[in-house]
């Protein structure tokens, strides 16, 4: 339900997300487009990896499968040039740990 007690429409929800994103002053992507909720999840996954959570823990928290979490984190690490090397090193280490625990 909306703030006015009406059923949500896709248009209303989209407009509210845009409004909240602008109020929160979330910067645009490198390519100039506004970030989406999906981008927020990708950023969160990358930041969770930086806190030394395992790929499995990140996947469970966000509701993804581990291989998909790896793809998303790789993508967002490449977008953030100031963090990319460190994040990719952590991701490679986390992938190795995930492989070791399967055996």
Automatic annotation (TrEMBL):
Residues 1-89 form the Tyr recombinase domain. Gene3D superfamilies: Intergrase catalytic core. Keywords: DNA recombination. PROSITE patterns: TYR_RECOMBINASE (PS51898). One of its GO terms (biological process) is DNA recombination. One of its GO terms (molecular function) is DNA binding. This is Tyr recombinase domain-containing protein. It comes from Harenicola maris.
């Amino acid at each position: 339900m909306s703030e006015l007690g009406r059923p949500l429409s896709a248009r209303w929800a989209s407009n509210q997300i845009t409004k909240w994103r602008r109020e929160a002053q979330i910067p645009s992507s490198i390519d100039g487009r506004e970030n989406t909720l999906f981008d927020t999840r990708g950023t969160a996954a990358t930041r969770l990896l930086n806190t030394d959570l395992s790929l499995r823990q990140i996947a469970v928290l966000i509701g993804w499968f581990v291989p998909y979490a790896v793809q998303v984190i790789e993508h967002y690490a490449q977008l953030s040039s100031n963090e990319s090397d460190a994040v990719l090193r952590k991701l490679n280490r986390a992938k190795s740990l995930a492989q070791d625990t399967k055996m």
